[in-house]
Amino acid sequence: MKTKISELSEEILQKLLEYKEKNPDFTFSLRERDSVLSQEKRLENGFWFQGSDYIYVPLFSKGDNDRKIKSIGFVITFTENNVINNNYIEVSFKGKNFDNEEVDFHKEVADTFGIELNQDNFGYYNFEDKENYLKNLEFYIGDFRNQVIKLLEKYNLKGKYIVPEKKLQKRLEKIEEIKRMRLSLNEKDNLEINQYQMKHPLNQILFGAPGTGKTYTLRNEYFPQYTISEKSISPESYFEEIVSGLTWWQAIALALLEMGTSKVNDILENRWVSKKAVLSESKNVRATIWGNLQFHTVIESKTVNYTQRQTPYIFDKTKDKKWELFENELKEQAPEIYDILDSVNNFKPNPNKEIKHYVFTTFHQSFSYEDFIEGIKPVMEEGKETISYQIENGIFKDLCLKAQNDTENRYAIFIDEINL
After folding, report:
1. What is the C-alpha to C-alpha distance for residues 196 and 391, in angstroms, rounded to an integer?
2. Of the candidates 286, 321, 345, which is a domain's last residue?
3. Are 322 and 387 in a shared domain?
4. At residue 243, what are phi and psi to the nearest 5 degrees?
5. What is the pTM of this model?
6. Cβ neighbours for 372, distance < 8 A, ≥ 6 positions apart
7. 98: which residues sit within 8 A by CB, 6+ positions away?
8. Which of 14-18, 129-133, 193-197 has the highest mean pLDDT?
């Protein structure tokens, strides 16, 4: 089925791009990233749209996959034998994700096309000819979308729902990059890579007596190769740089600041937590989130019985098993969270600030495996006599995780005082 979905995703993408050539203002939404809940690399496997065993093609921002909010989409489903068994247009809206104007907008969309909504505010526009999915897709991106655009204008929602051209092009560029990566390298490419590696070895040792210029060479010739100005990085790269330095509780706090009271499943899909999951090596992200929520629950909580709590005390669980953030406590105990959020949302590159893609360390006598790779570190909370322990990455492992998630830049570690 994976192959079928991948092939059909590419076919649909090409149809959308053909339509865009004739209608330049036409935009649509594409998968941005893989869900942290899934071990499958769907985006890398050519799943350009939402869905695992189906295809969901959203045209608007509210229905893209930033937070798994479905709104209006063209859906194709399959049998177990990889045969298309249905395709339809889905209209849905539920819960706190939609304000009153958006609810009225969706209801009018449903009324306009004779879509009957169920008690969960889900409805379907079914096609008479279910086998001709491409013809049905043309109706969806043409007549159907044009009518929806008029309703968006009526409710002053175009700015909120229309996918910006810049966002579309960015995701198309990512897809093209994935396609290039999936192509096998030809002999010429392999030759160029081998020649490059012969001229630029990955590992080098600078040796000599004290005062022969080893440190000078390192600082003036090697450090600059792995240093860039903040003005040359994108908002996305800056966001990743910030998230890489966050603790789990900080990422969760930022997610709840953006989303309000939420269930763990929703927290998992938020940009802060999902990016933190990608950059970390947590074997069970859900358990990590649960643990941090309980660690930092307010002392007076009546719904959380966990006793080993740590500052800051800022979370609590509601009776309906959702998690809330106490902003008054956050402002008092961890006000820096607001600065972090503002720096990302209002990112302004500083040309004088350097971003280092390297680590410089010294192998002194007390430097251990735990410092370099990974180790269990004691944590003593202020005002408490007991010691708790947590696993922390060493400097080399941290650097490897950053490099793994930033294929556009090279990373290096420089080690001083290696005694052979």
Report:
1. 38
2. 345
3. no
4. -65, -35
5. 0.47
6. 394, 395, 396, 397
7. 62, 106
8. 14-18
